[in-house]
Design brief:
globular
C-alpha cells in the first residue's frame, strides 16, 4: 500500500471520532447552535490565514514544478475561501467587522497553526506536506459523509457543499499524490516523521471542532 493509504488506515479511530463529533452531527441536521458555528468560522478564518502561509512555504520548498504549482494554488484557494465563504457566513450569522478584527486564536487554533508553522520552519519538506494533508483529506471525508444525510433546508448548506464538491476531492487527491511521491523518495526515518506529522494534524482536526462546539476561550 502507498504511504497515504497506510496512514489513513492507521488513523481510522481518529477519523471515526471526527465523524461522530456533536458539532458535525448537529451541523448535518441543521440544529447546531449559531454561537458555536460563529466561533468556528472566526477561528477557521484565523486558521486559514496561517494555513495559506504553510502552503506557500511548501510551494517554495517543493522539488518539482508540479508540486510548486499545486501548493501555490492551494495557498491562493485558502485565501479565497477565507474571503468569500467566511464573509458570506459572517454576514448571515451576525459577525461584525469589529468582531472579526478583535478575534484572537483559541488555544487549539494557536496550537494547530503553530504546529504547522514549526513544521515549515524546522522540519523537512516531507513532514510539512504530510502535516498539511489532513486539512484537505479530513474535510473531504467529512463533506462526503454529511452531504447525503444533511437536512434540507439547512442553514449550513453552503459549508457542506463546499467540502463535498468534487473539485475539492480532486484537489485532495492531487495533494495525496504529492505526499505519496515524497514518501516514496524518502528514507524510513523521514517516513516515520511524516506519519507523526499526519497523525498530529489529524488530532488537531478533531480538537478544532470540539473546541468550536464548546466555544473554547483562554481559561486565564
Amino acid at each position: 500500500m502507498s504511504f497515504c493509504d497506510t496512514i489513513w488506515q492507521d488513523v481510522a479511530p481518529l477519523r471515526r471520532a471526527i465523524l461522530a463529533q456533536p458539532f458535525l452531527a448537529e451541523l448535518a441536521d441543521g440544529s447546531l447552535a449559531p454561537e458555536s458555528f460563529r466561533h468556528y468560522m472566526l477561528q477557521d478564518s484565523l486558521y486559514l490565514a496561517e494555513y495559506a502561509r504553510a502552503l506557500a512555504i511548501a510551494s517554495a520548498r517543493a522539488p518539482t514544478a508540479t508540486a510548486r504549482l499545486e501548493f501555490s494554488d492551494g495557498a491562493k484557494v485558502a485565501v479565497q475561501v477565507e474571503q468569500a465563504l467566511h464573509q458570506a457566513f459572517f454576514e448571515k450569522f451576525g459577525v461584525t467587522p469589529e468582531m472579526a478584527h478583535k478575534a484572537e486564536p483559541s488555544p487549539v487554533c494557536l496550537g494547530y497553526t503553530s504546529y504547522l508553522t514549526g513544521l515549515a520552519a524546522t522540519r523537512s519538506y516531507e513532514e510539512l506536506i504530510a502535516g498539511i494533508l489532513p486539512c484537505f483529506w479530513v474535510y473531504w471525508e467529512v463533506g462526503c459523509d454529511i452531504k447525503p444525510r444533511a437536512a434540507s433546508p439547512n442553514p449550513y448548506a453552503a459549508w457542506i457543499d463546499t467540502y463535498a464538491d468534487p473539485s475539492f476531492g480532486e484537489a485532495t487527491a492531487r495533494v495525496r499524490a504529492l505526499v505519496d511521491e515524497a514518501a516514496a523518495n524518502s528514507t524510513p526515518v523521514i517516513r516515520a516523521a511524516m506519519e507523526t506529522a499526519f497523525r498530529n494534524a489529524t488530532r488537531y482536526e478533531w480538537m478544532f471542532w470540539d473546541s468550536a462546539y464548546r466555544r473554547e476561550a483562554w481559561p486565564i
